[in-house]
Amino acid sequence: EGSTSASQALFESLGQYYSPSDLSTFQSYFKLSSEKVSKDVGGHASDTACSSNPNNCAEANLDVQYMMAVSQVTPTTFWYIDNEDTPFLSFIEAVASDSNPPLVNSMSYGSIESEVEESVLSSFSTEAMKLGTMGVTIFVSSGDDGVANFQARSDPSACGFNPSFPATCPYVTAVGATQGPEDGSDEIACQSNKGGSITTGGGFSTYYAAPSYQTSAISDYFAAAKAPEGTGFDKGNRGYPDVAMLGHNYLVAIAGNIYQVSGTSCASPVVAGMFSLINAQRMANGKGPVGFINPTLYSSKGSTCNDITSGENDCCAGSPGSEVCCSEGFYAAKGWDPLTGWGSVDYSLSSSHFL
Predict the structure, then answer these.
(1) Phi, psi dihedral angles at 258 (to 5 degrees)
(2) DSSP code of residue 232
(3) How far apart are the C-alpha atoms of 18 and 307, rounded to whole Å?
């Protein structure tokens, strides 16, 4: 379990609420200890908002239930941001100005990077870098629509390489999704056209240059991988995601019922919870929190992950046969790739390495 000395938080926006009663239902369903969210920033805890429309709570309930299930005991903050113009920047500025910021943060949201003002991209990166030096870790889901992003989900003309921010920021750890273990099959990159409901997001930033910790991983990928479909990306820029986790068919309590949910938004809070557990172990050993983990992830060349070598991220989220598949996409390969990063996080290997 986690530790009361550690701390973790979930970013939420876009009208999402979490339901305390659904959290209790989830914990009872999985025979977990009964725990409550420690701090609610923004006042978006509501049972009635969920019961009136389950969509009001799907994302928030997923995030809360799984982060708290993975790192039990660890105090959890539900952090809702009202500002829908620059919610990511508002969140990270608020965390950075907190005298005691949550040590591990998960953001299961994304936007189209090219539509974000450069001043926002720059400011977000600066704040994320500061937080890393303060011992704070930030995980961001890589998106559910392959390289194309969500605008192509219902419009094939919007296909292309459209990276997702803030996953593209070099000072966060971006988390992709896999499928397979949930039904006993081999683990591959999550793909909607393979029954995965969503396709793991990934690609290369249009704004951020590749950080020094990542340049060799990118060059190794292009030297060994099957050539990507399409053009229009800059391999000299920041590649994402960094790691991955199972993202298909999670059971989530919503409005008193159990639903199956898929997405990189499942993967991010689970990986975040794992690193809260690692922080708890480090603190028990008299050490500080892990902070910004990417340089260590890349210097270890994936030794803390299960390498995923099968998949392509050319399709958007959707049901098999009805999903939009584009003419652009990357292929999975040995080592780092822009689908699942270094692969799915192995908790045992990660805890040993980061302790």
Answers:
(1) -105, 125
(2) -
(3) 34
Contact indicator for 73, 1 with CB cutoff of 8 Å: yes
Alpha carbons 172 and 165: distance in angstroms, whole number:
10
Residue 36: predicted pLDDT: 97
Q: Which residues are part of the catalytic machinery?
A: 59, 63, 265
% helix, strand, coil for the chain, step of 5: 35, 20, 45
CA distance 269 to 51: 23
C-beta separation of 152 from 159 below 8 A: yes
User: Residue 2: pLDDT above 90?
Assistant: no
Query: How far, in Å, CA of 188 to CA of 128, rounded?
Result: 30
Helix 264-284 × helix 347-354 angle, to 10°: 40
According to DSSP, the residues that pair with 139 across neighbouring strands are 106, 173
**DSSP label at residue 247:** -
The whole-model pTM stands at: 0.97
Yes or no: say if 312 and 297 are a contact pair by the CB < 8 Å rule: no
- Distance between CA 6 and CA 29 in Å, rounded? 26
User: What is the residue whose two structure tokens read 């298909």?
Assistant: 248
pLDDT in tens, 289-334: 999 999 999 999 999 999 999 999 999 999 888 999 999 999 999 9
- pLDDT range class, residue 75, cuts 50, 70, 90: very high
For residues 131 and 163, give the distance between their C-alpha atoms in angstroms, rounded to a whole number.
23
pLDDT, tens digit, for every residue of 189-206?
Answer: 999 999 999 999 999 999
Residue 84 buriedness (CB in 10 A; 0-12 / 13-18 / 19+) = exposed
Please check whether residue 311 is in contact with residue 332, taking contact to mean a CB–CB distance below 8 angstroms. Answer: yes
